[in-house]
Amino acid sequence: MTNKVTLLLLCFLHLNVTAQQWIDKKYDYESTLNVPYGTAVNFNGSTVTLTMDIYTPVCDDTNHISRKPLLLWVHGGAFLAGDKNEMTNMCKQFAKRGYVTATINYRLGFVPDDIAWNCNYPNYSCVFATDSAEWYRAYYRAIQDGKGALRYLINRNSSLNIDTNNIFVAGESAGSFVALGIGLLDTLSEKPMQTYAIENAPNPANNTLSCQYCLGESFNGVNVPRPDLGDIDGTIEPTSIHFKIKGIGNMYGAMLSDLLKNHKVNTPKPAIFSFHQPCDLIVPIDSGGVYTGLSWCMTNGYNCNGIKNTAKLYGSRAFSKWNTNNGYGYNIHDEFTTTNFPYNFLFGTGSCVDQINNPCHAYDNSVLRENNLASFFAPLITTNPVCDTTLVTTENISITNDNIMSVYPNPCVDIIHIHYENHENTTITIYDIFGQIQNDDIPLLKETTQIHVNNFRPGLYFMEIKNKYGTFKVIRFVKE
Fold first, then answer.
1. Do 205 and 282 meet the contact criterion of CB atoms below 8 Å apart?
2. pLDDT, tens digit (0-9, with 9 covering 90-100), for 440-471
3. Would you say 465 and 472 are in contact if contact means Cβ atoms under 8 Å apart?
4. Which class is domain 25-380?
5. Which pLDDT tens digit goes with each residue over 350-377?
């Protein structure tokens, strides 16, 4: 009984230690920048090359590096602007925590309106699409690119050493739309109808040709073709490798439809962390149009036309309520501030003028929200600490240097393999997370032994390795 309690305490100690490991910043990192990950066709039929930056944690002893979680960061910019470099700091901060991190450029732009909207406000005409369908199409292209970027990274697992059961995505603003889409747009029924072939769009007004997303584009015809945008996964980097998205970081983003309702069969639902401010002028925290608050400010202070042809969105609070009211069963953690948009141009916290210097479409405290996101993700991670050879080490458990052991696959489905060179007089006992023994002691009779776990329930288990000198290693594994 004493040994069982001791092991259980060690297991929970391990859970606390390994969870903290993904919060603390203790690793150096290496970066590989401007890596091409694919090509794709943009809103005007031009082929563009897409690039990413990759950051990997570094261990002092390369022999001790285990598989690592992957976190893909996606920048914002209303699908019209922005760059992967905006996410460099977030990538570095999570690489220091032990993640492989990456940030991507994705296809930007939509067909601008053929009306020459003008206003005494920089690039005002650039936010007017020819119709609301263009918002859905820009959003969909970005999701396809993000999915392709994940597959590119996973296909290079031999060099990056990613644990494919611990994949995370996060984004800011439009990047959060993309992150939510990568993790949740996984059935054909969720493909927006606007992304199928639709009628051509008229050529845009000349004053939009200087918009960032139009630079270098030629509009030679009377109109712009809008073909079917293809499969929800896109065509970049096909893979046969199975991977799981464990969590999504939604920083003041939204959905364009209910992506929680339908989820791919036999695929775990990702956990979602949401940060949003109710005074957001760009992405309403509840349901509404893109730019609802900004459009009010433009018409009530700048004497501009209201922003037209936008899509209806469902902000962080709206889809969190869907989850609660409909019993969808997602683990959603909301961090919302309290200041509402006062619908006042000059006066008050969150007013149009106040948000010039204190925007609500932003973090209130970026370091706090980054750390809270790391704390939310940490318990979801089931891979080993990055630079550790074992999962539990205490003064009562001695690890000998000549014990060469590997356990694979981890997670497993039906069979788990144990390879151990010094296998003589060694036995294995398996415990569940509550300390209940799952088997009689299993002797290791050869260097590689198979253990059948097909009758185990899915979950977390601990493998106690013992020889004549006592317990010398405890290894965690996951049964799917």
1. no
2. 778 877 677 888 888 888 777 778 877 766 65
3. yes
4. alpha beta
5. 999 999 999 999 999 999 999 999 999 9
- Classify strands 448-452 and 415-420 as parallel, antiparallel or unpaired: antiparallel
Length of the chain: 480
Q: What is the distance between the alpha carbons of residues 254 and 115, in angstroms, rounded to a whole number?
A: 28
Which residue type occupies 389? Answer: T
Distance CA 47, CA 55 (A): 27
Q: Which residues contact 223 (CB under 8 A, 6 or more apart)?
A: 200, 201, 202, 203
Taking Cα atoms as reference points, which of 411, 402, 396 lies closest to residue 476? 411
> Buried (b) or exposed (e) across 241-252, using 16+ Cβ within 10 A?
eebebbbbbbbb
- Topology of the domain covering 1-22+391-480: Immunoglobulin-like (2.60.40)
Alpha-carbon span 261 to 431, nearest angstrom: 36
3-state secondary structure of 167: strand
CA distance 343 to 468: 75
The residue assigned the tokens 């300390």 is 435
Do β-strands 271-276 and 245-251 pair in parallel, antiparallel, or remain unpaired? parallel
Chain centroid to CA 241? 18
Question: Which sequence spans correspond to the domains of the chain?
Answer: 1-22+391-480, 25-380
Query: Three-state SS for 198?
Result: strand
pLDDT attached to residue 349: 95
Return the C-alpha torsion angle 22, 23, 24, 27, nearest 10. Answer: 40
Decide: 271 and 168 in contact? Cβ < 8 Å.
no
Q: What are phi and psi of 157, to 5 degrees?
A: -65, -30
Q: What's this model's pTM, rounded to 2 decimal places?
A: 0.78
64: which 2 tokens?
A: 């001790």
User: In the beta sheet, which residues pair with residue 248?
Assistant: 169, 272
The alpha carbon of 281 is separated from its chain's Cα centroid by a whole number of angstroms, namely 24
pLDDT tens readout for residues 290-300: 999 999 999 99
Amino acid found at 13: L
Strands ordered across the beta sheet of 287-289: 254-255, 312-315, 287-289
Cβ-proximal residues to 1 (8 Å cutoff; 6+ apart), any chain: none
Collapsed DSSP state (helix, strand, coil) of residue 62: helix
Q: What is the distance between the alpha carbons of residues 148 and 144, in angstroms, rounded to a whole number?
A: 6
